[in-house]
Design brief:
Elements lengths: L19 E2 L4 E2 L22 H8 L6 E3 L3 E3 L5 H13 L5 E6 L2 E11 L5 E9 L4 E6 L6 H6 L7 H8 L2 H8 L5 H19 L1
Antiparallel strand pairs: 1-2, 1-3, 3-4, 5-6, 6-7, 7-8
Length: about 200
């Protein structure tokens, strides 16, 4: 919906090495990573945290360019999208988690509803921000929230993804992001186009 390119950086050659940082027309591979990402070799190699992903998304002008997709505001592969989305949803009161199977990740949110008869229903919203998919599953009533939150699948870095998505420090940083007027207009326009396309 928001035209965010997908670049997986754990492959050779790394497609992020072709991304140009538009403000000074420098290749990302030529830029040193910010201090907090010092363990990475270049800016092209970092795992994009929610603050970086989202602050780029709402900047006034696109910051990046790639020969295959032109100019764009932000980018990220599945886990980077889901970390940002999980933090955003937390501001609306929805506690979620990132889950992994194989090399793919998605977000899940536990939703508690009450029927007209007063009976409580627990649902899981399964959101995949890579493939623009949302599914709803009915949760068994005896599944405790702590057990549900602990079920994150398997992967070398899945615990790290969840730690970042639930980091209070990262949440505070995201909360302080200033949304530019140009970005607000751009995002609203893209959302309108997407939703009107679905309605038609």
């Amino acid at each position: 919906m928001l035209e965010i390119p997908y670049f997986w950086h754990w492959i050779t050659p790394n497609p992020r090495h072709e991304i140009i940082y538009l403000p000074d027309s420098t290749s990302l591979v030529e830029l040193n990573p910010p201090e907090e990402f010092a363990r990475y070799k270049t800016f092209a190699d970092i795992d994009r945290t929610p603050w970086l992903f989202l602050s780029d998304l709402v900047s006034s002008n696109p910051k990046y360019y790639h020969p295959q997709c032109g100019a764009f505001a932000t980018f990220g592969w599945c886990s980077e999208r889901e970390m940002a989305f999980t933090i955003l949803m937390s501001f609306y009161g929805y506690e979620g988690k990132i889950k992994q199977s194989g090399i793919h990740t998605w977000s899940e949110f536990r939703i508690e509803l009450s029927g007209v008869d007063g009976v409580k229903i627990s649902l899981t919203a399964i959101v995949d921000n890579t493939f623009d998919i949302i599914k709803w599953n009915l949760l068994e009533p005896n599944i405790e929230k702590t057990d549900w939150m602990a079920d994150i699948g398997r992967g070398e870095t899945i615990e790290w993804y969840n730690s970042i998505a639930h980091s209070e420090n990262e949440r505070r940083r995201v909360q302080k992001i200033q949304i530019s007027e140009a970005a607000a207009f751009r995002i609203e326009e893209l959302a309108d186009m997407y939703l009107n396309g679905i309605i038609k």
